[in-house]
Design goal:
Length: 403
């Protein structure tokens, strides 16, 4: 049987509190669950437990210094990790993380990472209850960083209250839950997705486009494969590598995307439109580079086909149709309007034009709406969000088939 954390790469950050000694057992448990673990320690942590201890239990060199020359420098470590777990996290480290400081290796890795981070506080109860610590934790939570704990009980300082590091067994379960959120069951189903931006050419060297990177769409495609579906991904120009196990079709423009989708949609069960398709294209495509001749210039644009609306309007063999809605304001109002107008079975609305979610970021938040129901999928890593969305789609698809 596959271990629950098989193929997962976890960076354990250890900061300087008495609970640091528990970190060695935590590494052992994470490895037993199948994860590869690397450890980064603050200087204060090394006064409680030696790096050698963590080296022995992790079977990897332990990282303590910012060293741009090192093969595992802070950027590489940030990229390497699927997940960063800071346990124990002192009040001082939480404060530094909350304020974006990068004054040691661990804080620098966290700042350079766009992965999911969980912080496991361990400190004296008065320090935990202090408004400064509470405010710092709120800042982290608002940024999507998870705060796990603290637990309640007797403390090293002799007091009893909130501030204990959560037990390692509990932490392991939380990591497994976080990293292996089941994407549901789409066994035997065929799923067609669109992703990324489109490029609408103006002349041989210029085009109109948008900020989509394809991350959200590729994450949903990956989750659909994990759920057992046969997946076709039609994507506009992106630099991402397609997830293994899918049929990948690269396109440039909205019309190309429309053609690729329409040629395949008749045999799929589910259509998911995550692409940021340009609504308009230039009415004429200049065969030569447009010259700078006048002070002002007017571009005439014509409407592109609405791929999603056309799929959802199919009379024979309409697939379960899921749209996305990217809005800067009145998110739910516009999303619900699109869901009804385009006759969608489901729509996932996300806020764009802000930092930390929507276009380009590693994380996102989705408000998912369907006839008579809604669910918020809170801010998290797009990979996890893709799984949560696919799980919802799998549930609603069953209902769609039987109704
Ligand atoms: O790619 P990332 O950087 O990860 O960013 C992800 C994202 C923000 C692009 C993604 O989460 C998202 O919101 N995708 C939909 C963007 C969009 O174009 O939304 P819209 O509200 O303009 O369009 C509504 C729906 O109609 C979308 O499902 C869209 O794919 C579809 N559509 C729109 C126009 C068109 N001509 N054809 C379409 O199929």
């Amino acid at each position: 049987m596959q271990k629950p954390l098989a193929n997962k790469q976890i960076l354990l950050g250890v900061t300087g509190g008495i609970a640091a000694y528990k970190g060695a057992d935590l590494v052992r448990r994470l490895r037993e669950a199948g994860a590869e673990v690397q450890v980064a320690m603050t200087h204060a942590a090394t006064t409680f437990v030696t790096p050698l201890t963590f080296q022995a239990v992790s079977d990897n060199l332990v990282h303590t210094e910012v060293n741009p020359e090192a093969s595992m420098g802070h950027i590489n470590l940030a990229r390497w990790a699927d997940f960063i777990l800071i346990a124990p996290a002192t009040a001082d480290f939480i404060a530094r993380l909350a304020h974006g400081l990068a004054n040691d290796l661990l804080s620098t890795i966290c700042l350079a990472s766009d992965r999911c981070i969980a912080v496991v506080p361990a400190m004296n109860l008065i320090m935990w209850e202090n408004a400064a610590t509470q405010d710092n934790c709120s800042l982290l939570t608002n940024r999507g960083i998870k705060i796990w704990g603290p637990g309640f009980g007797s403390q090293a300082c002799g007091e009893i209250g909130a501030g204990r590091m959560l037990e390692n067994s509990k932490l392991c379960s939380l990591v497994i839950e976080q990293l292996s959120a089941s994407p549901g069951n789409l066994n035997g189903l065929k799923v067609l997705l669109t992703a990324g931006p489109t490029h609408e050419a103006l002349d041989p060297v210029r085009f109109i486009s948008n900020q989509s990177t394809g991350k959200m769409g590729f994450a949903v495609a990956k989750a659909a494969v994990e759920a057992g579906a046969q997946v076709i991904l039609v994507s506009g120009p992106v630099i991402l590598k397609p997830p293994p196990g899918i049929e990948y079709i690269k396109v440039e423009s909205a019309v190309d995307m429309y053609d690729a989708v329409m040629a395949r949609v008749h045999w799929v069960d589910i259509f998911i439109a995550t692409a940021a398709v340009a609504d308009y294209r230039a009415s004429t495509l200049s065969q030569q580079k447009i010259k700078k001749t006048h002070e002002k210039m007017t571009l005439e644009l014509v409407r592109n086909p609405d791929i999603l609306a056309e799929v959802a309007a199919l009379r024979s063999h309409k697939p379960f149709s899921v749209g996305f809605s990217a809005e800067t304001h009145d998110l739910l109002h516009y999303a619900e309007d699109k869901r009804r107008r385009k006759n969608l079975d489901m729509i996932a609305a996300n806020r764009v034009g802000t930092t930390g979610s929507g276009f380009g970021s590693e994380q996102n938040e989705l408000h998912v709406l369907w006839e008579g129901g809604a669910q918020l999928l809170p801010l998290t890593d797009k990979v996890l969000l893709g799984r949560q969305l696919i799980r919802l789609i799998a549930e609603r698809y069953q209902f769609f088939k039987t109704s």
